[in-house]
Request: fold
Amino acid sequence: MQSHRELVVEPIGLDAETLERPLKWAELFGNDHPVELEIGMGKGTFLLEQARNRPEVNFFGIEWARWFWRYASDRLRRAQCGNARTIRAEATFFLTEFVPEHSLDVLHIYFPDPWPKARHHKRRLIQPKFMPLVQRVLKIGGRLQVVTDHQGYFEENIEPSIRGSALTVVDYNTPATAGNGEYVGTNFERKYQREGRAFYALAATNSAK
Ligand SMILES: C[S@@+](CC[C@H](N)C(=O)[O-])C[C@H]1O[C@@H](n2cnc3c(N)ncnc32)[C@H](O)[C@@H]1O
Reply:
């Protein structure tokens, strides 16, 4: 993918090599505000709109694809979102190695890659083995929010994994930054909405003791 403009990652985009494990959110953001983390932020539309509208919350985005990570970090930098940071990393690895136990208020996962071919289903992020990690990083009372357009992924993995976990399913919260009729307002949602696709949303809280 190409951009005609130079994408500047710093100071929003961080280098995992320079972070301590586990990291300390309060030191990273310079305050002890609640932290919400998005896995697979793509071009960063959700993170940008949330960070701009909710300065009392810290937002952290994980994105594996280098170009999307650079693009989103540059957008957040240009919008002067001092309450946002990003990392280019694989999410399971990053949550395991870097994110402190019970430290996130919300974990957002919007339009995760569906890996539609049967032989690739094992690559799907949300499956039963992922759920203990979600439980570990969410605060008690913290929330997981998921939206997908992929019925198979939702019915085969997302819903059974979440319902079968120690989390408690609750009503999905539509963010205030979502547009009319949107679940969340990401680039993929907007693209798929134009194609008339159906969406599937689920939320759960970490009520485990
Ligand atoms: C289908 S796109 C959705 C992007 C954005 N959330 C949206 O709704 O517009 C999925 C994104 O998640 C990223 N991704 C997929 N698996 C990931 C993982 N394990 N760790 C980090 N990022 C991941 C991909 O690179 C891609 O940018």
User: Anything to note?
Assistant: Helices lie at 25-29, 45-53, 66-78, 91-98, 131-137, 151-163, 187-194. Residues 13 and 146 are 24 Å apart (CA to CA). The chain has a mean pLDDT of 95.
